[in-house]
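Worked example

This section walks through a single chain of length 786. The input is the sequence exactly as stored; nothing has been trimmed or padded.
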Amino acid sequence: MARWNSRIALIILCMIVSITARADGFTLKGKVVDEDERALELVTVSCLAQGKVTMTNLKGEFSINLQSADSVEVRFTMVGYGARKRVFRRPKGKINIQIVMRPAAELQEITITERRRQTSQTEQLDTKDMRQNPSTTGNAVEELIQQQSGVSTHNELSSQYNVRGGSFDENSVYINDIEVYRPLLISSGQQEGLSIINPDMVEKVGFSTGGFEAKYGDKMSSALDITYRRIKGFEASATASLLGASGFLGYGNSRFSMSHGLRYKTNRYLLGSLETTGEYKPNFVDYQTYISYNPNNRWTVDFIGSISENHYEFTPEDRETSFGTLADAKSFKVYFDGHEKDVFRTFFGTLGITRNFGNKTNIKLQTSAFHTRESERYDIMGQYWLDDSQSSENLGVGTYMEHARDYLTADVMSLKLTGNHRTLHHNFEAGVTIKWEHIKEQSSEYEMRDSSGYSIPHSADRLDMIYTLRAQNDIRSQRIEAYLQDTYRFSSGDTYYTLNYGVRLANWSFNKETIVSPRASLAIVPAFNQDITFRLATGIYYQAPFYKEMRDTVTRNGLTTALLNEKIKSQRSIQVIGAIDYRFKMLNRPFKFSAEGYYKALSNLIPYNVQNLKITYVGENLTSGYATGLDLKLYGEFVPGTDSWLTFSLMSTRQKFGDTWVSLPTDQRWAVNFHFTDYFPGTERWKMTLKLAYADGLPFGAPHQGLEEQTFRAPAYKRADIGMSYRIVKDGKSLKNLWFGVDCLNLFGISNVSSYYWVTDVTNRQWAVPNYLTGRQINISMTADF
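Given that input, the structure is written out below as tokens.
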């Protein structure tokens, strides 16, 4: 009996201990939400004193068992949100709570950001007055780029540009972090239509002429970073002119935004001023949309779509050109027969999903697709006479015929994953991209030239063409690209520093090449004068071959065949850049002076020549070279309330063939650009914009010759465009603004040269007959904002 009593007492004691232990613990349950009562997942819930930690689930709910005490402190933390804590007094049993977390207050970065300095090699350009600038192409963003220091163009019909001695193909373009492409068969400004960038949809334009960050792709010359804007409220605009029309419609709120842009362009009016008369039928149309959806602060879905249809038809009739000097003037007359018909059809789309973990961390997954179907078809025959204008002596008579049946289809698909995390002093960014490329080409070209009764080149036993080309290629390849970079902002006393450093890697399955591209830049705002910023940058930059660069030609029995060179390597540029920016006030208005010197050591170059906008590569890594120069820019309010700038560039770029140094086809030794904006005295309704360009001519030589024979230099490119705009309606209700504009394009009627046509006289001597660009034209436009 005593034994059973002792057992019962032991059981009762255990029950009492168990009940007491349970009474000393409690269960805390609840939900964590943001200010809009949306659930926050992965919030850390912790009681440091007891060493207990848990996290909220996807519904923002949590449950944690804790020991009771006089006071129990529980903390709630998440990156990007201010920490919360709750203190419970002698808690017992089950407790249910709801915690509201608010975004952390933005920590002020180093004062460099507050002063809005340019602390990287990417300059943010002001786009507020783009639409009122006189324009021949309708591509306002590219025309703004063409006026920057270090940038040159010699064709007002084109949106393409050269940067510090690089070719058109060495410039990368990004829209909302996705690299975009242009048609591949474009060979003249007449064929080129609207660029893929719609200026009505642009929010920000970042542009770098070299030394750019690791996040930008494998190009050697420049990076253009475009950000499309999210619409807030209702916006609409319409523009019509003699050169085309455009319309824009957008609507947005705090969660949803959509915008649509439709553009039409025709060069028929401009092309009527060319020396070659005939029937021009250029018609270019494109439609773009940008849709952005934010279901909450954590998720963002973006979509960009673009459809472009460019048609160019031309039936030439005749041409008469006078060239030479007063002492040696020549006259060139041609009568044409034939027709040209080109079609460039492109589709582009990108879908991106962004996940924000607070205000300082996010990851983004983007997929994109680019498709282009292009055809270039012409059969044009010309009968020409070359005469001495002073003596009326006939120097040559002949016939030529040009034929082309070029077809190309290209598809590029990509999948890109990027991540970004910001702290007080650092901004870490990383990304990996996979691209799938499929390009299919079928080309047939030839040129027959008959001068004074002899086919050139002359052969006694057969008929040879002066130029032939056959190409039938089909390539599928894959590229893998990755980058990692950090922007580190710090200070030492009153001296402020911004250091960007990173590395980029890429592999291409076609040639099995892997390239590594380290890059770094440093900006310093010194304590002795905080109106000055010093910038230094260096890095290894590669020009990864795409399609045109790897087309290697082999000539047998007078027939040239284009094959794909599987041993082609990326061209390389080692860049060193030093710059200074100085902000000052003059006449109580803000100004900025920038000077930037650079040296680029070039290797593994693939030589090329340029005819108008057509770049033809040798298809082999044959040369090395360099590019060096100095770019100066003065920017500021020459007139109160307006932005104007003056740029001056000096450059030398050369390549080495064996032991011989020759100029690159883009060796523009000097260039001056002036952009001036003013209002009429006493009113801000009348606005005037003047654009001046004066640039050294580029090297050239006879076609189908070695590049080392490009020893001639074209005349300097000189052009002036002026635009007058009158604001009929200002800040209205339903009609916000109404602008009427009159532009005088090529104000002084200067005959600039785009390329040369070569003819042969009776002594087998070749003459370069210039192909001139557009003459003076008047354009009238009307723009309405709703």
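What to look for: The longest strand covers residues 394-422.
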